[in-house]
Amino acid sequence: MQYPLGVDVWVPLAPVAGGAASPGVSVIARLREGAAADEARAALATIQHALDAGRPAGERAARVDVRPLTGRPEGSDWVALMLLRCAVLVLLLITSTNAGGLLLTRALERRQEIAVRASLGASRGRIVRQLLAEGGLLAAAGACSWQSRLRSLVPAGVLAAALVASYLPARKAGAVDPVEVLRAG
Q1: What backbone torsions phi and psi does residue 24 show, to the nearest 5 degrees?
Q2: Is the pTM here over 0.70, yes or no?
Q3: Nearest of 25, 35, 26, 45 to residue 1 by alpha carbon
Q4: What sign for the dihedral angle of Cα 42, 45, 51, 53?
Q5: Are 64 and 48 within 8 A, CB to CB?
Q6: Cα(94)–Cα(71) distance, rounded to whole angstroms?
């Protein structure tokens, strides 16, 4: 598992309440290559016993546990994950709308070029395909920049959203009347 890339240990900003006698601390860490959870659990238990040896009984650590992050989220973790997913989808919708607006503006600025192509015999479908290819190329560049960091469907989702966002501007630009555009200058 490569999650999270480039991070060895996360530490919380504040201790988690673990009881009146001793607050607990939650730590998320990645095991070194080839290490097993049982080895980590045994090493942490040894450290815990060494730390507890010099403390009074009321101040000893509550527990040390090693659990994999591969399990299915439950309870409040599941709710937090769903909220995060919804926020990401809203962000993707906003950025797709923004990209669609930028592509539409770009296509409208190129109306004269598109009108010349249409007057030279380019079909509406060919013009739409060209503009979709340009939008797809931009989306592919954006998706490839994420590919090295995320090994999931996110790059494919970004690519699909960008293609959907570029379809309407491409269709609208392909529907220009070359005579009107060229007369307008």
Answers
A1: -100, 165
A2: no
A3: 35
A4: negative
A5: yes
A6: 31
Q: Which of 10, 65, 66 is nearest to 37 (CA)?
A: 66
**Contact call for residues 135 and 166 (beta carbons, < 8 A):** yes
Give pLDDT tens digits along the chain (185 positions). Answer: 455 566 666 665 565 555 544 455 566 677 888 888 888 888 888 888 887 887 777 776 666 777 776 666 667 777 888 888 888 888 877 877 787 788 778 888 888 888 888 889 888 889 888 888 888 887 777 667 665 555 555 667 767 777 777 788 788 877 878 888 888 87
Torsions phi, psi of 16, nearest 5? Answer: -90, 135
Nearest to 99 by CA among 124, 66, 73, 132: 132
The phi and psi torsions of 61 (rounded to 5 degrees) equal -65, 145
